[in-house]
Amino acid sequence: MKDVVRVASGQGFWGDWLAAPRRQVEGGPVDYLMLDYLAEVTMSILQKQKERDPKAGYARDFIGAVDSVLDAVVSRGVRVIANAGGVNPHGCADALLALADQRGVRGKVVLGVVTGDDLLPRLDALIASGHPLANMDTGEPLSTVRDRVLSANAYLGSDPIVEALGKGANIVITGRSTDTALTMAPLRYEFGWGAEDWNRLAAGIIAGHIIECGAQCSGGNCLHDWQSIPDLWNVGYPIVEARADGTFEVTKHPGTGGRISVPSITEQLVYEMGDPHSYITPDVTADFTSIQLAASGENRVRVSGIVGRPATDKLKVSIAYRAGFKAVGTLVYAWPDAMAKARAADEVLRRRFEMLGMHFDAIVTEFVGATATHGPLAGDGHEANEVQLRIGVRSPDKAMVEKFTRELAPLVLNGPPTVTGFAGGRPKVEEIVAYWPALVDKSVVTPVVEIRS
Questions:
Q1: Residues 203, 204, 207, 209: is their CA dihedral positive or negative?
Q2: Backbone CA torsion sign across 138, 139, 140, 145
Q3: Cα–Cα distance between 172 and 203 in angstroms, integer?
Q4: Are 369 and 387 in contact (CB under 8 A)?
Q5: Do the Cβ atoms of 259 and 219 come closer than 8 Å?
Q6: How close are the terminal C-alpha atoms of the chain, in Å?
Q7: Residue 129: inside a domain, yes or no?
Q8: Rounded (10°) angle between helices 181-191 and 159-166
Q9: Distance of CA 386 to CAs 31, 94, 252, 369, 407, Å?
Q10: Quick one: average pLDDT of 18-40?
Q11: 286 and 361 together in one domain
Q12: Is residue 260 a contact partner of residue 268, using CB atoms and an 8 Å limit?
């Protein structure tokens, strides 16, 4: 057993810094590279891509990320764990094996492919057998929107990733696993933590939560003393250095920018936390109030004291469904009276909607530069030198939304003066994908692990 296991975060979302994975494996010693790509809306985007192309449906950036670290994987034994499989883990695996062929290392790449999270083909059977998949916010059964469901994925825990590592995989690809499992799994595998070792499992979950968003815990998007954070252009992504007893330190490679500190870690801990006493995952329930943080060196924070409790008998299910159409357009009004002009333009548009019989489920107006961020707390914004009018509409009727897109441009000549910023043509009509959170019994979800090489 290793005394210390180092898990480096290289991606915090699909679209994160492409250079980060390579920098993490080249900047110093790491045992595992964790890449987190999936958010709730990402699954629906990937499902729509797969509908257009059966070979798509995974985070294609992942292939380039692996290409950039492949030498470290095959020569230094660095293992990669990622949820980049999205709704097509096998398609992702095919692309990785093709890459291995191109690089001449096919025999040295062993893939662990985790599936079983995709419930879309089983929804009708689940509903019929007494699993309503009720919306966690409203209590409505999924049957009310079943005909519009686009994707449905259960959040898997660390078990199948640990299994894949135990079978020799040096790259593990999952679909919708929890973000935290990507870090917890290698710690559980290396240290042999048992399925009921609640405190240590909770420590693994907390470690994963801290680094799941990449540089957000190492100086990026950090409010505390943000002006003094050095060299964000060269920001170092976080690394967990964990021990078998469940304690760990969060650090980053020397010579990189950003900052690891108790405040930066604290800000990340409260991100998407919910009830601090009960952070529920498929593996364990972690008590965030038990966490002890202490600076243990430059850009180094020690985390200890974590308490865990048994997990529940449910899995969360992320469901996306089609919910109509929207379009958003903008115009910029300049000084003098920029705010008054933007408000007048908003009034003109709304009155024209009435005159032309245009009806929408919602009309939302923001005055960017004056009130968009803080809303009514910002006041009237009379002193702003320029204000961007941003107006959006929503409707189940695509034709009605398209009609809206043709009403914005005329204000350039027939609305308030000093308008600019209308370029690129009419606003684009987009399909709305809404989020439906639900729970399902663990007993009806069976993860599957396949080894490919």
A1: negative
A2: positive
A3: 22
A4: yes
A5: yes
A6: 26
A7: no
A8: 50
A9: 51, 51, 41, 7, 22
A10: 96
A11: no
A12: no
Sheet holding 111-115, edge to edge: 292-297, 300-304, 248-251, 239-242, 5-11, 32-35, 79-82, 171-174, 111-115, 448-452
Q: What angle do CA 288, 294, 299 make, to 5 degrees?
A: 115
Task: Answer whether 88's CB lies under 8 Å from 174's CB.
Answer: no
What tokens appear for 289 in the block? 């109030």
Q: Which of 285, 312, 339 is the last residue of a domain?
A: 312
270 and 353 in a common domain: no
Contact 168, 144 (CB under 8 A): no
Q: Is residue 278 part of a domain?
A: yes
Distance CA 220, CA 11 (A): 13
pLDDT of residue 279: 97
Of 312, 339, 364, the residue that ends a domain is 312
| Range(s) of the domain holding residue 184 | 5-117+155-312
Give yes or no: residues 308 and 385 share one domain. no
What does DSSP assign to residue 192? T
pLDDT above 90 for 376: no
- Say what the pTM is: 0.94
Q: Is the pLDDT of residue 63 over 90?
A: yes
One-character DSSP codes across 90-103: HHHHHHHHHHHHHH
pLDDT for 198 beyond 90: yes
Q: What is the mean pLDDT of the chain?
A: 96
Tally the domains of the chain: 2
150-160 pLDDT tens trace: 999 999 999 99
Which CATH number do you get for residue 369?
A: 3.30.70
